[in-house]
Amino acid sequence: MAKQVKKSKEYRKPNQFREQQLPASDSAAGHPAGKTVPQENKSNPMILISVGLIVCLALFAYYHLLTMVQMKDLSDSLSMPDQRIFGYTMSDIEALRATMDSDAVGQLNYLHKTAGFLFPMFTVVFTMLLFIRWIPNRRTRWLAWLAPIGFAVTDIWENFSIDALFTHDLSAGAVLLASILTTIRWALLLITAGLVIGMGVFRANRGLKGKLLAIREGTD
Q: Among 3, 96, 122, 123, whose Cα sits 20 to 30 Å from the Cα of 56?
């Protein structure tokens, strides 16, 4: 018969268990379960949005404060329809048609196709991106988008309407339409600018209050 080997149990001392548990606890503390080390986000979307808004301001200054003002030299000091916030009448357009030659009309049409197109497009794109960052609620964000979208559509439509006043037969209906578009365009632009400035001031004020509160809690 084969000999039965008696198995002996191996007992370890308590200090041996402590030595094995210490490395495991150190590794668990270094890498907590369920948590990953966050990586730094190197690309900040707000930098791109801020640059885009600066470009919008530059285009506004170039289009309205420089080139449209210079157009007065070609129209006997009469302001362009684009600059008349409260609209214009049939007699206003007739006076402009009488003083502006074909070169002046061509220059106005060129401005509408270049800076007059880029300004509303840049404004609507970067304003909408800004509202995405600043407004988490989807419904509120859509309401805020209505102003820049409406501005861009109205601005481009107004450019075509004004060009038609100088290249086609003049009619009271065409003048009224262009005048209404100009007024709506300026109103929507002011609303868009007000939303951006208002939300920017609100967020800056909230951030400042948060920092002051943190400073007070740190000194207590």
A: 96
Report the number of distinct structural domains present in the chain: 1
Measured between alpha carbons, how far is 47 from 53 in angstroms, rounded to an integer? 10
CB-based burial, 82-103: b 16+ in 10 Å, e otherwise = bbbeebbeeebbeebeeebeee
CA distance 175 to 28: 76
Residue 20, domain member (yes or no)? no
Q: Is position 69 within any domain? A: yes
190: region left, alpha or beta (phi > 0 left; psi from -120 to 50 alpha): alpha
Asked whether residue 21 is domain-assigned, the answer is no
C-alpha distance from residue 37 to each of 27, 31, 115, 153, 154 (Å): 14, 8, 47, 46, 48
Enclosing domain of residue 78? 45-219
> Which amino acid would we find at residue 70?
Q
Residue labelled with tokens 């916030």:
85
Asked whether residue 30 is assigned to any structural domain, the reply reads: no
Task: Please write the tens of the pLDDT for every residue from 155-174.
Answer: 999 999 999 999 999 999 99
pLDDT tens string 41-68: 545 888 999 999 999 999 999 999 999 9
Record the pTM: 0.78
Residues 129, 131, 136, 139, CA torsion sign: negative
Range scoring the smallest mean pLDDT among 18-32, 137-151, 166-180, 190-204: 18-32
Of 131, 132, 181, 127, the closest CA to residue 154 belongs to: 181
